[in-house]
Structures are given as structure tokens and as C-alpha cells.
Write a structure and sequence with these properties.
CATH class of chain B: Alpha Beta
Shape of chain B: globular
Distance between the termini of chain B: 40 Å
Largest sheet of chain A: 5 strands, mixed
Strand content of chain B: 15-25%
CATH topology of chain B: Transcription Regulator spoIIAA
CATH architecture of chain B: 2-Layer Sandwich
Largest interface: A-B, 19 and 20 residues
Number of strands of chain B: 5
Oligomer: heterodimer
Helix content of chain B: 40-55%
Number of helices of chain A: 11
């Protein structure tokens, strides 16, 4: 009872109670673990795992849980939670499942305490005083660990998508194509430009065709990035041809008054490549005419 | 830091080998112009491959050199701008407008060669 707390020597009692609690949980390990696994199955959590896998995972979570309770330190548990998340996230385990199983374990253990101390209400209260904050902190640690791991994966994937979505392709000696698809934000625009400039140097390109057919919308900032890309490429001695401006984008650009005078634009990608070939001195003709 | 100027047929090649102070840039400008006058060169290549930064003063001086030498009939080509340098330059709004640029020395020479062939036709 909160009111009776002040009268007790809290420190000594707390550590004694914690010891008692931990030894209790260690003694009843098999039974409590099974009960917990049962509850998980009933609640239809962790359905992505087989029964054996789930039980093995449950065992190690249980042991780490008790360990965290007994030592009062959470580093090991944190590391374990990260490691666990790394393994189970690719299997499609959801956040609510992870939080759900940890809360279930908390409930199972609390119930066992109720069962053990039901005769001694005062003792039960004191045990719960010790158990609850620690249990909540454990639940918190595991959930946060899971979410952090998830966010890390999301960031990693975003990065991967960004890399994938900006290929710089060589179609002819000294002619590069850069098809841009999707949304361009300032960060991506910067990355695009850097990638293109490196590719110009690496491939010794003279002409670059940037095709923006796949760009849905463009605002002043993005248009200016495009102009910057064109100018930077020129500093490296490459001519840029922009193709695939949709009517909407063309209108937006005219309305907001972006100076596209420095840009070489051609209707579509085909026209852009033809123009580039002329600039490079190629002449493409059907085989029949050459004979 | 003195910039060596080499003669290659009808063209002059100035290779900047390290970061230049403002005075070095002035010296380069007068020296190049003097060389153009003396050698009757048709083209100048300024190689900036070694530079990892080009500030507004450097850019302006390069533009000035190009404009001055054009008045004596020589075209200036800036070659070897590094990708990172180009990126920084456009962000600062320095675009070397009106000056020809090429990827490297070879490209620059090829460009000037084409131009002089045209002139002689």
C-alpha cells in the first residue's frame, strides 16, 4: 500500500524482495514459460513462427527477462531485443505482436505472484511494488528496441531505393542517359547531380540526356536544381539535353518564371537521343540505305 | 606559385598545379595574355584538374582571361573541373558563363583542333 511505504526501510526490503522474486521465477521457469507460450498461441501472436521456434524464442526472452530483473541492468536485454528484432522483422512479425508477448509475460508472471502470495496481502503488495516498475521498464526496453530496429531497416531501405532509382546509363560511346522517376526532393536532387557528374567523368561523356517523363510534378526548387545540374555538367564539358517535360510541368515552369533559357530541351527521349547523336556526329540510318 | 605555360602547336597550355593566391591569378592573367600576343596562339587551355576549390575570384579571373584573349583571337577552354568543384560552383552561382569547358586536356585540345580547322577553311 502506498501509504505504508514511508514506514519501511525501503532499500534493504527492495533488494530482498527482488531476490525472492527472481528465485521464484527461476524455480517455476518451466511451468511459467509453458503457460506463457500457451497464452501467446491463444492470442494468435507470432503466427509467422512455427510452434518450436516460438517456444525457443519464448524461452530465451524469459531468461533474459529474469536476468534483467535480477541484475537491474538493461544493456544485455537491449542488445538481446535488437538481436531478436533483427531476426524476426524479416519474418513479418509486427510491432503489436512484440509488445503483446512482452505484456503477456508480464501478466503471466504477475498472476503467478498473485497465486503464490494470495494469503499474505501485504507481502503481495510489496512484491508488486518491486515487480511492476522493473517489468514495465523491461517491456519498454524491448518495444523500443524493436521499433528502433525497424526504423533502422526503413532508413536503410529508403537509401537503397534512392540509389536504385537513379541509374546513369551509357547508351553510346560518350552519351549518357539519366532517366528520373518519382519525386525529386532537394536531397535526391543533390545526389542525382553528384552521381551524374561522377558518371560524366568516369565515362568521359560529352552529351547527357536527362529524361523526366517519370517526374509527376516539379516546383521552383526542383526546377532550379535541374538548372544547376545542367550548369555543373557544362563545367565538366558535357552538354545536357532535357526531355519528357509534360505539359503540366511546362506550364508550371512558365508560370513560376524559372529561367530555362540555359536548358536544351527536346520533346521526348527519342528526340533527345537523336539530337545527342547529331551533336556527337553520329548518323543513324537503315541498313538498306547504306548498301 | 608560378603557373607554367607550354606551347603545343598553335595552342598554349597552362596547368595550374596548386591553389593560387589572388596575386598568382593576376600574374597568370598578364602572363597568358602576353604569351598570346607573342606567340599568336589560336587557343588556350587552362587545366584546373589539381584544384579542389574554385572561388568567385578565381572564376571571375578565368572568365576575364577568356574574354581578354578572345579579343586577340584566341579561344580559352577550361579543362579538368572536378565533379565536386563543379557542384560547389553552381551552388555558389559561379557558372563560367561564356567560357568553353571540356572534360580534360585531351578533350580541350580536340575542341581547339576542330575550331582551328574551321577557321582555316
Amino acid at each position: 500500500m502506498p501509504t505504508s511505504r514511508g514506514t519501511r526501510d525501503l532499500d534493504a526490503t527492495t533488494s530482498d524482495l527482488l531476490k525472492e522474486l527472481v528465485s521464484l521465477l527461476r524455480q517455476n521457469r518451466t511451468q511459467l514459460r509453458e503457460e506463457w507460450a500457451q497464452r501467446i498461441t491463444e492470442a494468435r501472436l507470432l503466427t509467422a513462427m512455427s510452434k518450436d521456434e516460438m517456444f525457443a524464442e519464448a524461452t530465451s526472452v524469459y531468461d533474459n527477462y529474469v536476468e534483467a530483473l535480477s541484475t537491474g541492468t538493461f544493456e544485455a536485454l537491449q542488445a538481446y531485443a535488437r538481436n531478436l528484432s533483427e531476426r524476426i522483422i524479416p519474418r513479418g512479425v509486427e510491432t503489436h505482436e512484440v509488445v503483446g508477448i512482452v505484456l503477456l509475460l508480464r501478466d503471466v508472471l504477475a498472476r503467478s505472484l498473485f497465486g503464490k502470495y494470495q494469503a499474505d496481502f501485504d507481502k503481495l503488495n510489496r512484491i508488486l511494488d518491486v515487480y511492476e516498475p522493473a517489468a514495465n521498464r523491461i517491456a519498454n526496453t524491448v518495444a523500443v528496441g524493436f521499433v528502433q530496429e525497424r526504423e533502422r531497416i526503413i532508413r536503410q531501405q529508403q537509401e537503397a531505393i534512392r540509389e536504385l532509382s537513379t541509374p546513369v546509363l551509357q547508351v553510346r560511346e560518350r552519351l549518357l542517359i539519366l532517366p528520373i522517376i518519382g519525386v525529386i526532393d532537394p536531397q535526391r536532387a543533390r545526389q542525382l547531380t553528384e552521381q551524374l557528374l561522377r558518371a560524366i567523368r568516369f565515362n568521359r561523356a560529352k552529351v547527357v540526356v536527362i529524361d523526366i517523363t517519370g517526374v509527376a510534378a516539379m516546383d521552383a526548387a526542383v526546377a532550379n536544381h535541374l538548372v544547376q545540374t545542367v550548369e555543373a555538367s557544362r563545367l565538366l564539358g558535357a552538354t545536357v539535353i532535357v526531355t519528357g517535360l509534360s505539359p503540366e510541368i511546362a506550364q508550371t515552369l512558365v508560370n513560376i518564371g524559372v529561367d530555362l533559357g540555359k536548358m536544351n530541351t527536346v520533346g521526348d527521349l527519342q528526340g533527345g537521343i537523336e539530337q545527342a547523336e547529331r551533336l556527337l556526329g553520329y548518323k543513324v540510318m537503315p541498313v538498306a540505305e547504306t548498301n | 606559385m608560378d603557373v607554367p605555360i607550354l606551347r603545343q602547336g598553335e595552342f598554349l597550355i597552362a596547368t595550374i598545379q596548386a591553389a593560387l593566391s589572388d596575386n598568382d591569378l593576376f600574374a597568370l592573367r598578364s602572363k597568358l595574355f602576353e604569351y598570346v600576343v607573342r606567340s599568336r596562339a589560336l587557343g588556350i587551355i587552362i587545366d584546373v584538374t589539381a584544384l579542389d576549390i574554385l572561388d568567385s575570384f578565381g572564376t571571375r579571373t578565368l572568365s576575364e582571361i577568356a574574354l581578354m584573349c578572345r579579343l586577340r583571337g584566341a579561344e580559352t577552354v577550361i579543362v579538368g573541373v572536378q565533379p565536386e568543384v563543379a557542384f560547389t560552383m553552381v551552388q555558389l552561382g559561379l557558372t563560367l558563363e561564356g567560357v568553353t569547358t571540356a572534360l580534360d586536356l585531351e578533350e580541350g585540345l580536340a575542341h581547339l583542333g576542330r575550331r582551328s580547322k574551321l577557321l582555316k577553311r
